[in-house]
Every structure is written in structure tokens, then in C-alpha cells.
Amino acid sequence: MELLIRTWNVFHGNAHPPRSRSYLRQMIELASADRPDVLCLQELPLWSLRLLGAWSGMQVEAVPTFPSVLPRRLAGWVTRRHQGLLRSAIAGQANAILVSPDHALERLERLRVSAHGHHPRFVHAVRIDGRLTVVNAHLSPNAEELERAFVFAEQWRPSVLAGDLNRRGASRPAWSAGAAGIDHVIGYGVTVRALTEWDTERRTVDGVVLSDHAPVEARCSFALDARGEAGQSRRRK
What we know:
This protein has one domain (about 1-220): Endonuclease/exonuclease/phosphatase (Deoxyribonuclease I, Chain A), CATH 3.60.10.10. About 15% of the residues lie in helices and about 35% in strands. The protein is built from five helices and 13 strands. The strands form three sheets. The chain has a six-stranded mixed sheet with strand order 3-4-2-1-13-10. Strands 5-6-7-8-9 form a five-stranded mixed sheet, covered by helices on one side.
């Protein structure tokens, strides 16, 4: 079984460099246009969570990571007055895993991996078709957060850890190699091939470069047993 898994830190819908307006809808539509199996997103404003399904045509599992100081719809209106200046401080922040309607989605666990700090860092997981677990992460450069993310994802095999890990070459034994940048799609019990970072042209719409991060994607495959099932397991604590 092979899935196309894509990750993108959408920078709250900002262009690069930031402008006054939001381009979040254009980002979601662009990233979902070719129907990836899984799309992991980071740095979403909270007001956008109710719109992701309509914009993408995909199933949505989201985890808020930073609260909004205003009701979500009001925060969206305020931040859209000047998107480049007003972001998570007003609108809050979330991460989300979007899954194609062609696949069954099972929501698993979420975990705060940051021990302290004003900006909590979370990982969260879903299972695809009862076979593959995908973990979405947005981490700081703190090595302990990355270690907690790996341990969390290793509860399941096969699994993929995708997202903004804020570290180059993020991997460890039994995991596939990470990307050259800080955004990764890496596998545990999974073959990762065709690992690609979008070039600037691919994320440019009407002359505007979307986000300060480029999407990263890979084709991820894993073996099925004689019954056509993956070797999905959960470690006992």
C-alpha cells in the first residue's frame, strides 16, 4: 500500500514576505488540489478549522495549540485587517491532519511534548484505513520535544511522522532519513520514497509566494501481511 503524504507550515495564511491579506484558502486549495492521501498542516489560525473541510474536500482532525484572545470568528475578522502583523497573538493557533475521503479515518491520541514555555507544542495522530498511523508535529528546536515525538509515534508500526520539526536531518535508528530542511516526512516501518520539497514556483499564486515554508511530500509504502493487513501494534506502557 502506498500513500502520498504532504506537510505544510502555512504561516497563518501569510505570503512571503507577509502582506496585509490572508492567503490561507488559496493555500489549502492548492495543497489539496491533486488529492493527496494525507495533508498535515501547522500554524493554522483557530478560526480556519471550521472551513478546512469545505476548502479541501478532506476529512479533518485538528488540535488547538495556542488559544485565541477573542472569539474565533471575531479574531478572524481582526487578523484579516492586516494578516502580516496580527497572527497567533490574536487568532490562536492549531495543527491539523486532513485525510482524503477515499480512506477511513480513526482519530488516535494527542500529546503535549513541550515541558514549558508560553507556546505549547503538540503532536497528534490518526490511523488510516486501520493500517498506517500518521503523526503531525510542530516542534521548537528543543531536542527533548523531538525525542518525545519519536517515542509517541513509535507506539504504532507502521507510522509516519510529518510536520515542521524545526531541525535538519531529523531521524534516529529504525526511522527513514529526514529531509534537507526543517520540514519532514519520515517513516517507522515505512518505505519513504520520492521525498520532495516544492520549489518556489509551485507555491506561487498570481505572483504571490505562499508561506515562508515550502510543502514537503513523500510517497510512503508499507508491507501487508497475508491477510492484507499492516503490522499495526501498540506498545504497552
